[in-house]
Amino acid sequence: MAHHVEVAEEQYVFRPETKKKLYILLIVGIVVFALGLVFAMNDGGHHDAAHEGGHAAVAEAQKLVASADQHGAASEGHAAHAEAGHHAEKPLWIKRLFSTLWMNNVFFTGLGIIGLFFVAIQYAAQAGWSVGVKRVPLAMGAWIPVAGILMLVLWFITHHDIFHWTHSYLYDANGAEFDKIINKKAPFFFWPLAGGSFPLFYIARMVIFFGLWYYFFVQIRKNMLAEDLEATNAYWYKNRVTATWFLIFFGVSSSIAAWDWVMSIDTHWFSTMFGWYVFASWWVTGLAVITLIVAHLKSAGYLKIVNANHLHDLGKFCFAFSIFWTYIWFGQFLLIYYANIPEETIYFYERMRTSPYSWIFYLNLILNFVLPFLLFMTRDAKRQISMLKVVCPIIIVGHWFDFFNMVTPGVMKLEGGIGFLEIGVALIFAAVYLLVVLNSLSKFPLFGKNDPMLQESLHHHI
Amino acid sequence: MTADKNFLVGVFDNEEVLLDGISKVRSNGLKIHDVFSPFPVHGIDDALGLKKSRLPRAAFLFGLTGTCLALTMQIWMLGYDWPMIIGGKNYASLPPFIPVTFELTVLLSALGMVATFMIISDLKPYKWPRQFDVRSTDDKHVMAIDLALNGGKSKDDISRILKDAGASEVNEKNFE
């Protein structure tokens, strides 16, 4: 059926009412955050009774780790390190604030680069169906520079409180706090400088990753928008090449970013699955955000060229990659569970068996696997906007919890938890993220009228 | 006249004529037995007004059977029938059972779906499929009308409706 269908161009209008709603969200976030800050400052970090059992569990696990380390030249006080008790000069609420800021920024960074990643795979795979939705993820890429600046600034403010490996005493071979294991990992952070000095390699990677991600984003956006003015396939071919280079770079950089920004918090611990794990979490959250924005645009009367078939494809993406995330989660868990090596099991010991995190550990599996799996299983569920609007927020909130449990236990030990402070910061990030993304979306037409794949997308039928 | 034996067969030259033809034939009150095409035609399910397949539901139930079977089998074997300690874990610990459970879920749901599909499509090993027109495997689209189910109309009426709907020829086909 080779009918040529004419479609009218569309442009998203970022209306003042929408902006007002987002500003209200932002103000609510700030109020909740301020309340949380006051509560946290007055809390003073007393251990309540519920924490005691958890303490015993962690102490036991650390004994196991310490005994496994004994064959090395590790000193007696080695196990006490992870607690970092006598080094925490700063009050607990500051650590809690830093931890939640870092965690939210890593989470939302993913929602920026996944937008670009989605656009890139559409070009590399020569996908035709996605012309109507492709500019939503493109707009999400506008978050990349904001996230990059925040990441760099936050790192310099928070690094001693979040990253154990930044303390120079760990690398002093004659000091009492010398850590043989972390010292071996020093070049990964400090090369070409000496361990314990400025982490040049680490910071350079951060700058290069964000710099190149932003560069690729600007290139791909430039070509997509140039195509609107000039009806030629040349820009599409150009973008296919750019997208392929980006994907190669992203494959490496997303994994290293996961080690750098998340895994290095638990400096002694490592998992070869971790890069994939963070990527899977970012990817499925990003897909849920794309789907949710498309669903809302559709409800608001935009995107007339998107129909149930396109929504079905987005729904399938969310469904499939929820299962993919679970597969990665289980792949990481089962190997560590079965091998039963204390250095590795401590990670799950802290998250599964200790009271502030245990409920999140199980909630994570319910929100990110059980619910999307059952709710998105049927064909109809994926084709209906109302259902997409229910399941996508579940996935997004679920993976926020996932990132919370990746970051917080390593920073806060047993003092972590979710309160007004954490919710407030998340709301602030969400409001600012949406302001940036929707503002960017209002700057260009909602789909490329000269996209060579436009007719294929209009005839998409599954 | 018994059903499923005597047919009029309309032959269509291309899928656009066929899709238009289906709606014309149906709006004239004729019941279509089935349509045969050499390749998948988008939109033909909607045009024929086919009900949604219930195969996914069968697949879900087969999968659920696989899940239950796998869990029961492993818990019974390793927990009760011949308890063994493996890797220092409890007798019946869930995580190592997950991969086997997953595999059996997929296996039963796949085999069950294939079997269900074969049965409902009447694809038995000893039964040859009926062919309304051999050209439906080459370059023609074929629409079969069961005369017994359209008893209110004469052969000539049906033939004329098919011709009006765009059929390039109409043939009679009888099965024993």
Describe the structure.
By secondary structure, chain A is an all-alpha fold. Chain A has one domain. In chain A, 71% of the residues lie in helices and 0% in strands. Chain A is built from 16 helices and no strands. In chain A, helix 3 (92-124) crosses helix 9 (274-299). Chain A is globular, with a radius of gyration of 23 Å. Chain A starts with 15 loop residues before the first helix and ends with a helix. With 176 residues, chain B is α+β, with helices and mostly antiparallel strands. Chain B is 44% helix and 12% strand. Chain B is built from 5 helices and 4 strands. In chain B, strands 2-3-1-4 form a 4-stranded antiparallel beta sheet. The longest helix of chain B is centred in the middle third of the chain and has 27 residues, at 55-81. Chains A and B meet through helix 10 of A and loops of B.
Set out the fold topology.
The complex is a heterodimer of chains A (462) and B (176).
Chain A: H1 16-43, H2 49-69, H3 92-124, H4 135-140, H5 143-162, H6 180-190, H7 200-229, H8 234-261, H9 274-299, H10 308-339, H11 342-352, H12 355-375, H13 379-383, H14 385-412, H15 420-441, H16 454-458
Chain B: E1 6-12, H1 15-27, E2 34-36, H2 44-48, H3 55-81, H4 98-120, E3 141-146, H5 155-164, E4 169-174
Helix pairs in contact in B: 3-4
